[in-house]
Amino acid sequence: MGLFERFRIGLARSRGGFMHRLDQLFRDGEIDDAFFETLEEALITGDVGVGAALQLVEQLRREAGRLRTRRREAARELLVVKITALLENPPAETLPAAKPLVILLVGVNGSGKTTTAAKLAYRYRRDGRRVMLVAGDTFRAAAIDQLQVWADRAGVELIRQQPGSDPSAVFFDALNAARARSADVIIGDTAGRLHTKTNLMEELKKINRVIGRALPGAPHQVLLVIDATTGHNGINQASRFNEAVPITGLILTKLDGTARGGIVVGVQDILKIPVCYVGIGEKIDDLEPFDAAAFARALLGSDLEM
User: Fold this and answer.
1) pLDDT tens-digit map of 223-244
2) Please, are residues 118 and 146 in contact by the beta-carbon 8 Å criterion?
3) Which domains does the chain carry?
4) For 106-118, what is the mean pLDDT?
5) Which of 16, 228, 256, 261 lies deepest, with the highest CB count within 10 Å?
């Protein structure tokens, strides 16, 4: 099954939701003012965000007028192109001059961060890289044990310490171990208490500083993991985490269980942080690079192959 079909299945889980409304709206008929008003409302309630919704609808209105497009189905394909263009903001490839590549995953508890770290490690290992996972969420023994299970599934080594250890110290030791063992990639899990807790953000800042002192230029990527089912609150999470540590990319999880995929557009429009990967299942290989065109087609129920 291709990525397009997996997106479509995930986004269509709730047929009474966002995707269903759009599908009904774009059925045969002519474009009129009521069409644009309903589309704008649907995009906003689907977590696309007010600014992005207004921008997309205005662009569509102008483009439809320029092309003298009257059919709603044709307008759907125009909107696919507009959303694709908005989302096509690929992350800058930040590669260190010397190994290892250090990737830090942040996000609130329950976002799928721990399993995502292992899935990402699996992708790198499958590409022939030597990968180490770091159990940086030392506040929960269950998080360390869970990451050990997933590290075993991914076939990678886990650097861990006892629950309650200083997370920054775990990362410091992990960097030393990675250099000693010629690891190519280090992927660090972190604690994820509610993003409104100041102590969590201060801890992330400390981890970031310690990693940077141990290996200048690191972490090379800081990826924020967001649960797609959280809706617009995901934008608030992204803003808070980005204030604490500079976020270089997003990973959207649980896209197989929500019809509120508009959050992808909303986050990208407001924060201009690219979506790098999407989680569309529970298996070790269910993490895929984000494809803007495939996502836009699935979101709007389009059969157009681009």
Assistant:
1) 999 887 776 677 778 888 888 8
2) no
3) 3-87 (1.20.120.140), 101-290 (3.40.50.300)
4) 93
5) 228
